[in-house]
Amino acid sequence: MFSDATAETRSVALRAVRAAAALCQTVQADIDDTVATKDDRSPVTVADFGSQALICRALQQAFPDTPVIAEEDSAMLQTEEQAHILEQVVARVQAHEPAATAESICRWIDHGNADRYHDRFWTLDPIDGTKGFVRGDQYAIALALVEDGVPTVAALGCPNLPDNLDDPTSHGQVFVAVRDEGAMQFPLSDPDADGTPIHTRDTAQAEEARFCDSFVSAHSAHDKAKEVGDMLGISAPPIRMDSQAKYAIVARGDADIYFRLPRPGSDYTEKIWDHAAGRLVVEAAGGRVSDMHGEPLDFTHAPLLSENTGVVATSGAIHDNVIQALADYER
Ligand SMILES: Nc1ncnc2c1ncn2[C@@H]1O[C@H](COP(=O)(O)O)[C@@H](O)[C@H]1OP(=O)(O)O
Ligand SMILES: [Mg+2]
Ligand SMILES: [Mg+2]
Ligand SMILES: [Mg+2]
């Protein structure tokens, strides 16, 4: 399905995300005492730092000249107060990179601290949905290459996502997408398994749609999504889920719409690493992604999506209807 042009990029991204997913799974199995609180009061864990260290290390080795814009930095790890977190990060990373030291790990993490737009850069959320991760629910490891402002290659790891939403017993996929070429899912449990192509649902009538939104009500206006869903005639209950796993379930046809609608009075600006990989996975699988006004997501103001308000992803054919319903709702 994928052309040879992106073979090395895809394979480095896929291997790095698989290693980070394995690290996250071992931390999640034993989550106590691995969580700290950042200056903005949001949680960060040993796994966020460990995941960013492993992925940035792999990117730096393979593509030394391509900047990385990632969520975390090592500053708080280097404080005395968080020495116990750093110690655990070192132990977790050494399981994958035996020669790693506290110093090299902090350097790898900070390789992800390019802070402005470039014509070609990687963007990484080492754990997207940290609150879900800490709760034992959904989270994602989201990596995308952005070229000329558009995501072109993505690897989105979803270690807790069931293969089938109605049967939570088997789970864990990584989604790989290439712009204009398609999207595939690979089981995390078997590095040798072939990928399976994924496609959005061919839903033509909005009333047949299922929509998903954030689990955390502070991240997205649940009531607005519900009311717009009612206007579209949607009767199925919303799927509430943490992280970019929401993009993945739209991409593979478990849901038709992902609503991320700002809460009234919120001054939160979305970050590029929360949307670059997910957007590409949905678009390459046949869907559409825009902001809530139908405008394309603009990654040229990295690290912020400062030109956009809200995000809407759909299976494709119903996108214009959904955007129209949002405009009618706002009126
Ligand atoms: N007030 C907010 N509004 C919208 N998104 C937020 C807000 N605060 C944090 N986020 C981000 O939302 C993402 C997860 O949202 P969800 O799981 O609901 O889709 C995370 O990346 C999280 O950032 P962070 O990574 O700093 O925690
Ligand atoms: Mg994160
Ligand atoms: Mg995030
Ligand atoms: Mg965070």
TrEMBL record:
<dbReference type="InterPro" id="IPR020550">
    <property type="entry name" value="Inositol_monophosphatase_CS"/>
</dbReference>
<feature type="binding site">
    <location>
        <position position="125"/>
    </location>
    <ligand>
        <name>Mg(2+)</name>
    </ligand>
</feature>
<dbReference type="InterPro" id="IPR020583">
    <property type="entry name" value="Inositol_monoP_metal-BS"/>
</dbReference>
<dbReference type="GO" id="GO:0046854">
    <property type="term" value="P:phosphatidylinositol phosphate biosynthetic process"/>
</dbReference>
<dbReference type="GO" id="GO:0008441">
    <property type="term" value="F:3'(2'),5'-bisphosphate nucleotidase activity"/>
</dbReference>
<feature type="binding site">
    <location>
        <position position="127"/>
    </location>
    <ligand>
        <name>Mg(2+)</name>
    </ligand>
</feature>
<keyword id="KW-0460">Magnesium</keyword>
<dbReference type="Pfam" id="PF00459">
    <property type="entry name" value="Inositol_P"/>
</dbReference>
<dbReference type="GO" id="GO:0000103">
    <property type="term" value="P:sulfate assimilation"/>
</dbReference>
<dbReference type="GO" id="GO:0046872">
    <property type="term" value="F:metal ion binding"/>
</dbReference>
<dbReference type="InterPro" id="IPR000760">
    <property type="entry name" value="Inositol_monophosphatase-like"/>
</dbReference>
<dbReference type="InterPro" id="IPR051090">
    <property type="entry name" value="Inositol_monoP_superfamily"/>
</dbReference>
<comment type="similarity">
    <text>Belongs to the inositol monophosphatase superfamily.</text>
</comment>
<keyword id="KW-0378">Hydrolase</keyword>
<feature type="binding site">
    <location>
        <position position="128"/>
    </location>
    <ligand>
        <name>Mg(2+)</name>
    </ligand>
</feature>
<dbReference type="InterPro" id="IPR006239">
    <property type="entry name" value="DPNP"/>
</dbReference>
<protein>
    <recommendedName>
        <fullName>3'(2'),5'-bisphosphate nucleotidase</fullName>
        <ecNumber>3.1.3.7</ecNumber>
    </recommendedName>
</protein>
<feature type="binding site">
    <location>
        <position position="274"/>
    </location>
    <ligand>
        <name>Mg(2+)</name>
    </ligand>
</feature>
<keyword id="KW-0479">Metal-binding</keyword>
<feature type="binding site">
    <location>
        <position position="71"/>
    </location>
    <ligand>
        <name>Mg(2+)</name>
    </ligand>
</feature>
